[in-house]
Design brief:
This protein is 49% helix and 0% strand. It is mainly α. The N and C termini lie far apart (29 Å).
Amino acid sequence: MAPFPLPIASSELRLSDVPEESAHWPQIERFARTFDWRRGYHHYELEDQDLSKLGSSSSLEELRGHLFFEQRRWNDFGKKPDALAMQQIRGIIGIIRSKVPEE
């Protein structure tokens, strides 16, 4: 796997940084790793990974944190996300895109 990309603060995130909902897993995975993992581990519970609970009322930080943990989880499994997980991940990407300013 490629090394972690540089973190991007949510306040600095631009639409061009966020993959399309139709992106392949490696692109989504790379974007997920732009979340500051040190902050992520301090602010989110690993046990609460129910992606279906996320929605348009979720904060950008919360969405990115869950996407980060989802990437880590599937990396630990050593495989790509299953169809249900990808559907939920793509939904998160769509919500993130709706919250990020255009260039």
